[in-house]
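Internal tracking record. Fields below are filled automatically when a chain is submitted to the structure queue. Please do not edit lines marked as system-generated. If the sequence contains nonstandard residues, flag them in the REMARKS field before resubmitting.
Queue: standard
Priority: normal
Entity type: single polypeptide chain
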Amino acid sequence: MRKLLIPIAALSALVSSSAAVADLPVGSKAPMFRTSVALAGKTMRYSLRLSLRRGPVVVYFFPKAFTSGCTAEAHAFAEATEDFAALGATVVGLSADDLPTLQKFSTEECRNKFAVGVASPQIIKGFDVALSRPGSANAMTKRTSYVIAQDGTITMVHSAMDYRDHVKLTLAAVRKLAKKH
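SYSTEM-GENERATED OUTPUT FOLLOWS
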């Protein structure tokens, strides 16, 4: 039996029509979760509820570590980490990759600037970010970014397989949120 490999560009085209729809609506409560994350290669436990106590959180889902789009997106978030921090916000990236892969990704591509963690099947379902790929049993997530206010309310959603606007739009949403408070 031959496996069919779908290039990322073809995968993007395959899901582009469904990816344009917001996965969880603005104004809804974000699902609280705990997971294992890596930051600067070190593993730890992460709790969205605890992170929100310090300020708003950008939770961004990415399909697969070390692919070209996910690497470029990680670099962009790494470059903007100080801008998010200046507004009191933190960033966490989530994918269905395993923790050893994310440990390496956190140092090489996230440049030790923010945590990346394991999106469990429950987290993927809760945020409605499953990327269905015909003929594949491997779990992946859509490229979806959420800005979550301290009270747990989703204030912004951007879902698009093209990585280029995720940082710009989430940073603008965090700035808007900061002006309100």
